[in-house]
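re: that complex we talked abt at group meeting.

here r the seqs, copy pasted straight from the sheet so there may be weird spacing, ignore it
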Amino acid sequence: MLKELQPQPKDKILMLMEMFKADPREQKVDLGVGVYKDANGVTPVMRAIKAAEKQLWETETTKSYTGLAGDPAFAAGMRELVLGDAVPADRVAAAATPGGTGAVRQAFDLVRMANPDVTVWVSAPTWPNHVSILKHMGIPTREYRYFDDETCAVDFDGMVADLDGLKAGDVVLLHGCCHNPTGANLTLPEFKKVAEILNAKGAIPMIDIAYQGFGDGLEADAAGVRHVVSACPESLVAASCSKNFGIYRERAGVLMAIQEDAAKTAVAQGTLNHLNRQNFSFPPDHGARLVGMILADDALKADWMAELEEMRLGMLKLREQLAEELRKLTGSDRFGFIAQHRGMFSRLGLTPEQVEKMREDHGIYMVGDSRFNVAGLNEKTVPLLAKAIAAVDKV
Ligand code: LMR
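got the structure back, here u go
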């Protein structure tokens, strides 16, 4: 029977990682997968994570199972980090998941349980794996306009016009901050407008927040999420700790279901636990526990926040440097949006052929839709990228 299996399409982002590794050229720059790298090209273990790991090693007395929803300190810490005091704690059901992707997957499962006819609306474009998971699960999707290729900014009028087609019970997937792949983000007034539309239509927001702290800062990056969850009677939030805690391989994420009242929240909590049990039983604990420890300890939290802020400011500086280099090289502000975008990614608006040319002629790797990872750059590689963009842009 297994011989009937068909080859699956390769994930385009992960395929780039392999291609980059296999490239023998010394002069090559990896701007593909969304992993933070410092100026030396290293993805560091953050100081607070190391300190928490040491503490955990010294104090942990068992590796027995946690609860199905994971460590309660992790859930409480993440609730506070992402939602602040936007909604009372007794309206938030939360369960740890294997990474942010696990939270997204569990969220799709949950909405399908609640509404077997659900349609999930995604931004055009969105993280390709959103669409891939939805397709794998057989959940119908619709796109709403989001990114204007001409201006490289959000096409908010187009988004509002498309959301007019929502039906009651549909789910609208939003990026909390640092939109992946475009880097173009909704403003707080735009989040407010979206919440109004969803409420008027009886649709439910699902917010994927995987880069909190990488855009305008931890609080500012959560402002849209906090508004939406407070303005809508029901919502879902899938949060990742991979990037902002730098614990990619530990797979730490959380799915939060915000309900109207405590009784409904208890049912949602039971459902999240049930879904974890069905899909993988207990969620991974190590990364989540470290996050829970950091968020509950003032000194560790302050150190984590300081290091995260250094990372964010470093990325911002690289954005400004690149926009400036391109301004000089092209004699125009055409690429000025790079300094306006926020987060790890920006979409340059190059064709797939131009992206391929960047790879072949210049050893610069980025996703085919011209998404590049700002954190893959450093002061020395910014000019290389700028020259390569200017060169292929003329072709
Ligand atoms: C990305 O978009 O590059 C990251 O979210 C990593 C991934 O899993 O695709």
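couple things i noticed - The chain has a mean pLDDT of 96. The radius of gyration is 21 Å.
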